[in-house]
Amino acid sequence: VRDLTMHFDIHAGILRRKVGAVKAVDGLSFDIMQGETLGLVGESGCGKSTTGRAILRLYDPTAGSVRIGGVDVASLGSAELRRARPQMQMIFQDPQASLNPRMTVGSIIAEPLREHSDMDRDARDVRVRELMDAVGLNRAFASRYPHEFSGGQRQRIGIARALALNPRFIVCDEPIAALDVSIQAQVVNLLEDLQRDLGLTYLFISHDLSMVRHLANRVAVMYLGKIVELAPRDALYSDPRHPYTEALLSAVPVADPVVEATRQQIILEGDVPSPANPPKGCNFCTRCPKVMPVCHEVSPAFVEHMPGRFVACHLMDEEQDASILRENKND
Ligand code: SF4
Ligand code: MG
C-alpha cells in the first residue's frame, strides 16, 4: 500500500459547492506480508474501516496504489476489477446486516460462485457443502434462513461466503466485535485455523488491543487518518514508541496482578479533532502529553527508525540526534 488516500468531499449551499474534504485516510504506506496477519488498531472513527474498504476497492481511493501480487488494484477498470475480485474478500463486522434475510444460507454462500465462476448448480452445491464443513456449520442447514442462526453461526456463514472463491487476502473488519464474548474465541480460532490451512493473508481491523495481541504478527496503529506506528507485535506491546500507542496500551488491563497493580493509565485530554479539519503539524499535537513546539508546525514523517519499526513522531528524531551525539562523544 503506497500513499493510500481517501478523502470525501463536503458540499454545502444550494449549489452544493465543495467546501472541504474529510481526510478519512491520509497517505498511508505500509506492506502486508504474504501469510501474515497485520492488525490495524485505533479508536472508532480513525479511518480503519475506510482503509480496509479502499484497499479492496469497495471505495475508489482518492490517490495511492495497492499492489496485490504485482497488480495495482487501485487503478483497475471495472472489468479487470471483477476479474481480480475473487482473490480479495472482506469479512464484515455485523453478520446480521451483511446477510440477505430472504436468501437461504446455501444461496448466500453460493452467491460469489454464481457471480464469478462458471460452476453449474451441482458443482456449486458441492462447493457450498465443502465450505460449510470448513467453517463448522452443519451442511443440513443450507436450506435455512439467516434469522434461524445465532450471531456466531451467522459470522461463520459470512466467513464461508468470503472463502467461496479461494481468496488469498481477506480484510477482517471487526469480525467479532458484534458477538458475545463467549463466542468470540471460537470465531477467532476458526479464522486462525483457516489461515493456516489455506495460506490466507489477513488485515485484521479491531479496536480490541488484547485480541490483536493474540492474533497479529505485526500491528499498525491509526490516529486521525494516519498510521502513527507499525511494528512487530511483541515490540509494539512491550516497547511502544509513539505517545498515542503508549496511551492506548496504558488503558489495557494486564493479566499479571503485580504489573497490573502498578499500571498507570495515560488519560488523553480533549477529543479527537475532526478529520475535516485536522490540526497543523502532527495530527496528535492537540492531545499529546509529550508535545513540543515543532509538533505544531511540522507533520512528522512515517519513518523506519529501527528495522521493521515505523514511527511518525518528532521524538524519534530527537532520540536519534541524541544517540548520534552520544556516539560522537564516545569517539
Ligand atoms: Fe506528540 Fe509531537 Fe510526537 Fe506528535 S510529533 S506524537 S505531538 S511528540
Ligand atoms: Mg469501523
TrEMBL record:
Sorted UniProt keywords: ATP-binding, Nucleotide-binding, Transport
GO BP, sorted A to Z: peptide transport; transmembrane transport
CDD domains in UniProt: ABC_NikE_OppD_transporters (cd03257)
Topology relative to the membrane: Peripheral membrane protein
Subcellular locations according to the entry: Cell inner membrane
GO molecular function: ATP binding; ATP hydrolysis activity
Domain ABC transporter span(s) in chain numbering: 1-249
Name the record gives this protein: ATP-binding cassette domain-containing protein
Species of the source: Pontivivens nitratireducens
